[in-house]
Amino acid sequence: MSIFENIKLYSVIFVMMCTNFQSQVHLKITSIPKGTPENTKIFMANSLNNWNPNDPNFELKKDSSGNYTLQIPEYEGTLEYKFTQGNWETAEGDVNGNKSENRKFHFNGNPQTIENQILSWEHVTVKQNTASNNVKILSENFSIPQLKTTRRIWIYFPPDYSTSNKKYPVIYMQDAQNLFNDASSFSGEWKVDETLNQLFAESKLDAIVVGIENGGAERLNEYSPWKNTKYGGGKGDSYTEFLAKTLKPYIDKTYRTLPQAKNTALIGSSMGGLISFYAGLKYPEKFGKLGIFSPSFWFDFKDLNFFINKNSKKLKHTKFYFLSGTKESEDMVSDIQKIIPILIKKGVPKENIKTKFDEEGTHSESYWSREFGAAYLWLFTK
């Protein structure tokens, strides 16, 4: 879901927003609810900034007509967004003050003016804790020495973990905030725990899931190995080294796992899909199953293409599950389709590659949640 980080990236964005780009999108709020305080600040939380409700780079300013306005540099695909007064307790609502659907518009490469009316400010509703009992917080501040930081790590245990002596396959997933618990998610959860609990009840299929929270403003930096001239990035090598050389050894040492690559998966979406794909290619001896949902290959497709072509690692045992909505962006499906022949040329058997392109697929947790079970089954069953 998001492509902005804090310091370096924000300075780039600021310059971009202050420059007269021919294809900028001009966002305008033409009316706000009665009773809104005169000095209210209004922000645009969106799928580009990790749904940050008070991002100063997406604060709308009043123009001479009294309308709140914001200019956004041209991007690609569909942008989902919602207006807030700086937090999710003061997000915009529908005509009755209830939660409203995300707004959307599509970047088309041409100047656009998008007019919006805010109907109400949402009545405060507290998100419920939806995590299952077999989901735990492994650590609030797990060390990432490669990035000189720490991160919260979640872990899901199969229902029979405490009553058996079995060893289990492991799935490592990005953006842990959105995997298990609606209360911690930005715009809904994947329901990974509910899905796996159901599959266990039906078929005794099981796996440990380790979720790594993203770094918020650092998400884009950590989820790309290469720098994008507009949006930053570049810490992906350090992040993937953490996955392969710090986190995985710790999990295998601490819990009853099946440590072989054939029993270990990486799954992520959007920028998380990009970094999961990269990590799988860089460390095929560690991660043999890759679930790549709505990947942001556009972010650095040239560098990614070069890396795959020059990569000398053997990939003949790696399994790839690619998922995308056909209307998520103009290039997402075609980028995936361009990658597949290169993988085959590098020795990946055709039967080890699965693609699913949905006309109704969206760049959202609800879509990825719906498809997670099918991806798991394809990756882990013969």
What does this structure look like?
- Residues 22-117 form the CBM20 domain.
- It holds the Pfam family Esterase.
- This is Alpha-dextran endo-1,6-alpha-glucosidase.
- InterPro entries: AB_hydrolase_fold (IPR029058), CBM20 (IPR002044), Esterase-like (IPR000801), Ig-like_fold (IPR013783), Ig_E-set (IPR014756), Mycobacterial_A85_antigen (IPR050583).
- GO terms for molecular function: starch binding.
- It is a single chain.
- By secondary structure, the protein is of the alpha/beta class.
- It has two domains: 8-121, Immunoglobulin-like (Sandwich), CATH 2.60.40.10; 135-380, Alpha/Beta hydrolase fold, catalytic domain (Rossmann fold), CATH 3.40.50.
- Helix content is 25%, strand content 25%.
- The chain has eight helices and 19 strands.
- The strands form four sheets. The chain has an eight-stranded mixed beta sheet with strand order 10-11-13-12-16-17-18-19, sandwiched between helices.
- Strand 3 (59-62) and strand 4 form a beta hairpin.
- Helix 4 (236-254) crosses helix 5 and helix 6 (301-310) runs parallel beside helix 7 (332-345).
- The protein is globular and about 65 Å long.
Sum this structure up briefly:
The chain is an alpha/beta fold.
Keyphrases for this structure?
Rossmann fold; alpha/beta; 382 residues; 19 strands; Immunoglobulin-like; disordered N terminus; 8-stranded mixed beta sheet
